[in-house]
Amino acid sequence: MNAKASRQLRLVSWQAAMAALLLAAGGLAQEEVTSPVDKLLPQAPLVSSDGAFEVFAPPPRAGFRWPVLQFADRFTDEFFRVARLARGRIAHPIIIRMGSDTNELRVHSGTVPGLVVGEREWIEIPDPEHADLDELRLALLRALIRDWLRGQMPAAARRQLPLPPAWLLTGLVRQIGGGHRIEDLDLVHVQWLRGQQPTLTEIFSAGEEIPVTARQPAMLAVLSAWLLQQPEESFGPLLQRLAAGASWSPALLAAVLHKRTVAELEEDWDAWQASALREIRQPGLTTPALVSAFCAQLPFYPGDWGLPLPDGWRGRAPAECLNWPATPEVQAALRGKAATIRLFAVGRDVSLQRVAMAYGNFFDALAAGEERDRLRAMLSQAAEACCQLEGRAAKGEMLYNPASQTEPPATGRPRSRHAVP
Q: Does some domain include residue 416?
């Protein structure tokens, strides 16, 4: 064998040895990745672009890191927008750890065992695949509020970071979610119209143990909406006062909302509910609370248009107007009532608009001095249509612009309280 052939043989042997070495190393690496010990170690965390969150997970749950991070980022953006809080850069990211030993979702404030050093907020999610999203939102909310307070307070005062009552945080989570706003408002308006609501003083004096009638998710969400929709920012100052040691009370809330007395706070709550009831949140929609409010507009009360009614404050049903004298004051009151009824139905469902038009025509005809038989027929038609509307509202039906539908037959319907006697 000449020298050239010898060199070629040595080169081939070296290449074969390197290939075998690489294959062996690959096998060892594969063994290392799939070893039982490595399966218990957390994967490298995913970090949000603004540094607000770090999401850890063991290899079996590593695929959930990105969806959980996206969920946390979206909720955080919505919370700061709704609460109108200034969102600065978070110095210590909130830790989210999946696959923990506990069987329940928890939120902590302190050192994260085995992951990071230092005080910070961290959340444990045992199984992200079956996690309750509302519980996760509530945990995120608690962590975000405490982290925000930590950035607002001096270091010496950061040991105690008190939160608002749990019921308010629960309502805030539901309000931020936004999936039930129309239904929540309607349920609360029905309570309000029937005089079944507790006062704000009763609610905010009770701490965590609020009255039973105020514990409904709808009520909690609407209370949170009222607090967050004040003309001036209120949630941030409220958190800061609580963190400074103030006690949770109606007086604290009145001070934060710039009300001189708790009575002014109650008036503001009532005025806000009345305004929300009149607001057209979805054109063409009529809720059960709107039907109740419409029916409450039909009687005449002593304060309506300066009309003297001597029989107290019970009000006079439309049928009782048939016997009123045709004086200029009565005629003006009837025309005013017709305009009010028609205006109430503007932007609502067609069914309510038809009932409003029927009653408006009756009041106008009564003011114009039409014949009694025709007036009775007009009132009977209006009362029958109103009875059908009340029956649908009593079932909790949401009426949404059924322009192509006809009203259901009156057979078997209860007699309307506005019908001709």
A: no
Quote the number of domains for the chain. Answer: 3
The whole-number pLDDT of residue 5 equals 44
Distances (CA, A) of 200 to 104, 124, 208, 211, 270: 33, 35, 14, 10, 10
Beta-carbon contacts of residue 241 (< 8 Å; ≥ 6 apart): 252, 255, 256
Distance CA 160, CA 137 (A): 22
Q: Quick check: is 319 in a domain?
A: yes
* Structural domain that includes position 396: 285-400
What is the predicted pLDDT for the residue at 38? 42
pLDDT digits (tens, 9 = 90+) for 190-211: 888 888 888 888 888 877 778 8
Position 43 pLDDT exceeds 70: no
On whether both 53 and 153 belong to a single domain, the answer is: yes
| Averaged pLDDT for residues 325-331 | 85
Residues 205 and 259 in one domain: yes
CB 151 within 8 A of CB 90: yes
